[in-house]
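User: These chains co-purify. Model them together.
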Amino acid sequence: MNKEELVKQGMQAVLDGDEEAAMEVANQVIAEGINPVEIINEALTPAMTQVGDGFANEEIPLPGVLVAAEAMTKAIEIMEPHIPKEDVAKKLGTVVIGTVEGDIHDIGKRIVATMLRVYGFEVHDLGRDVPIDDFVEKAKETNADILGSSSLMTTTMSGQRILEEKLSKEGLKDKIKTMIGGAACTQEWANKIGADCYAEDVNETVLKAKELLK
Amino acid sequence: MYRGLQPGISTFEGWGLNMFTDDELYEIHLATLDVLQNYGVGVHCDEALDIFENGGASVDRERNHVKIAPHLVEDAIRSAPSTILLAGRTPEYDVTLQGGRVGFTSFGAGVMVIDPFTGEYRESNKKDVAATALACDALANVDIYSSAVVARDVEYATDLNEAEAFLTNTSKHCHHIDLTGGAGAKKFFEMAAVIVGGMDKLRERPLVSALVCPTSPLELHTHTAEIIIECAKAGLPVDVLSMAMSGASAPVSIGGTLVTHNAEVLAGIVLNQLTAKGSPVIYGSSTTTFDLTYATAPVGAPELGMISAGVVALARKYMLPSYVAGS
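Assistant: Joint model of the two components:
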């Protein structure tokens, strides 16, 4: 199969959320000696973006996004060891993400972490009920570009403000961009506490994360 | 024309929605027992883990995970009382939860209000908590007060400030939805005890009760477990109320959702009964579907009505009072 065919099939596999088809394409890419980065950039990512847009337009339901992301992730897993060294380091950015201390709601946050990975970010997911200090430590340790915090309850939102204060105190506010999300959050809250960004859903998060790092 | 009496006939009062046969409810019950015994629930509270372990449940401390054998579940269902008093300041405001008797409450907890005087859409505050209690006090169709909104202008001891606001504005029973843990619960009970003249009087005529939420799927977080335990110790009713969302935090089918919902609530009830056998519990639900296109949980969806009917059928089977969201 030539590259053009593989690009078409790769796109369709992600659009359909077809894991098997995506993995088949990945194997073919390796067999043909094609640079996986080309397939990722020309087929998988555009298809994923199309799915994401479809979700934002309320045409595609959330599971459609998740299966597309799964398919893409499986394909990338197969191709990753075959990416030429010079192309490997091209991560969009490093993100540390977690649900704030006292809060164990994380379904949305996990979806966001998956999607950011799919779009080429290096993501460190700290899990849930994460002490504020752990956010800061991990951000420093990984040289994070973005620090994302999620909060579902009004009672745990204050953790996001404490995070901003800690980052200010350590002089990290210009190095690290903060993103907040979760059902309790709003743009007003982001403005109030000085977070760099608020995103309402997974699609917005990816778009805004890319914006933040421009 | 003369028409004779019909002795011994059965009649149907009011209106009802029969979602399941007894056999089908039994299937759901068996599936629930399977989940509790073979998969278990996450419990993030050391004291709760101790209570489960001492009660005979199988506890994995490293994973904060508990597996509950069927007989423990059945025992808890049997020992939890079928009749519960939710007392008001005076008996005329009392509500008895029993069998299929229906009552109404304000649900919550809202975080935003439309200001009734300015029309502004803003965050709720302590004054709003007081105002909602006052309104519910006056409304004949509201039987008990449940925290309608939260006090977002209070950063410290928010739950106790809310209690101060509603306890002083209604004579009806107060069901606190926003307690933040065992310590807060104890202080809340002390406040109520001051009103009625002591913890013993409070136990006899519970002026207050608490609502707690398991975290779906299948987890009891620290604060939830603590409050369940404190309520048991004080002999005050606790409403173990899950809000699972079918397709997001529960299986996408209504039947499957009822199974995991049931497991979560019963886990809380087992904890409560192991703490103090015979303590009053209420079987709660705000469980609804999850809209997979808009990625939101519509509490006004028809599925919520269907699930609530299923929940009540289960609660009636267990002979426990229930508390369900309505739209």
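Chain A has two domains: 3-88, 93-212.
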